[in-house]
Amino acid sequence: MLFSTLCIITPGLLYVLPRCPTAIPVVNNTPAAYNTSNSWRALQYCKAAYCPVDTVMNWSCGDACSNATADFHIFNIYENASTSNMGFSGMDHMAEKIVVVFRGTANTANWIQDLDFWAMPYPSVACGDLCTVHRGFYKAYSSIREQVMEDVQTMHARYPTYGLFVTGHSLGGAIAVLCAIELATWHLPWSIQLPESNVSAGATGAIASAKSNPAHLMPVELYTFGEPRVGNVYFTNWSTSILSQERQFRVTHAQDPVPHLPPRSWGYVHVPQEHWYPADDSVYVQCVDSGDAEDPACSNSVYATTVSDHLLYLSTCTRCTCDQETMDEIHNYTLSPDIKTILGLEYLIDNPQPNDVEAG
């Protein structure tokens, strides 16, 4: 993802926003610890989303498909010509998961959405009037949302014991957050209203049992890689309460600049929980963040201007294939001086030593 536009930092926005009222947490299974195997599988799904659509549809996209799972059945492909978004959904029968994947930035049209830092009200009464989200990210999500939600309901009716697994890289990570939050607020399977004929054998009883016992709500597992900030502190606090009993993991890498945009000086805050890989190896830091504060000792502790770190996660490239041409392209990406200045200001929020920053 490349940023080539200067965003004006408004001094009046550099303040600590108050905590919003805490929402009632969704009842769900006990939270799971970060799982490196699941993280690797999620990244392979993200890589697959960058592959040619026909190879994804046939699940013949090479290493990305085979490394994710051999027993994956595509349910649908999501494309929107006006926003150039792409994603897919399907069933991982080995892991017993309904999987929803969103592609990251793959062309200029997607980059433009990332460059738009303006916010809009988040259209959820439960979140409250003060909740805002990134306008471009929400527009991207909205362009394919209706079909995604319909398909998840259908898959869930057929496989009511399967969990939900949502993932995305870059812009796809932002869309994945919006999707996972909405799915968590559904209290599945309470939202299922499909005809009996659409429900697989034995599913009717399982759905009835779940409806009578709130502890049987479907778990939502969320893995994102190089995700940009999605909303303001009110949105993040509310989202944290919604996902507090879920399994959400925001993976960051070294000096990837994208997780530091849009800037906090514009009022944006990340949804927890960050897991930061400081280098290209298996060592990671489980960060201490919350709904209204990011961990200054994790990725916020570095001056993040290395674009290649955004395209290399878990020691592999995030594209469909990692041939020499792709790797050369990745390592040749650079940031504009304007964006370096913005990232330098972001760095100074947590690290107030100007002599440590070479912005420009």
What attributes characterize this protein structure?
360 residues; alpha/beta; Rossmann fold; 8-stranded mixed beta sheet; two-stranded antiparallel sheet; 14 strands; globular; disordered N terminus
Number of domains: 1
Number of strands: 14
Shape assignment = globular
Strand order, biggest sheet? 1-2-3-6-7-9-11-12
User: Secondary-structure element order, as H and E?
Assistant: HHHEEEHEEHEHHEEHEEEEHEEHH
Question: Nutshell version of this structure?
Answer:
This protein has 360 residues and is an alpha/beta fold.
How would you describe the overall organization of this protein?
The chain is an alpha/beta fold. It has one domain (11-356): Rossmann fold. Helix content is 33%, strand content 18%. The protein has eleven helices and 14 strands. It has helices at residues 36-49, 53-57, 63-68, 108-115, 135-158, 171-185, 203-212, 233-243, 307-310, 324-332, 337-350, and strands at residues 72-80, 85-92, 97-102, 119-121, 132-134, 163-169, 220-225, 231-232, 247-253, 268-269, 274-277, 285-286, 312-313, 316-317. The strands form four sheets. An eight-stranded mixed sheet has the order 1-2-3-6-7-9-11-12, with helices on both faces. Strand 13 (312-313) and strand 14 (316-317) form a beta hairpin. The chain is globular and about 55 Å long. Residues 1-31, 190-204 and 206-215 have low confidence and may be disordered. Residues 99-264 form the Fungal lipase-type domain. Pfam families: Lipase_3 (PF01764). Residues 1-18 form the signal peptide.
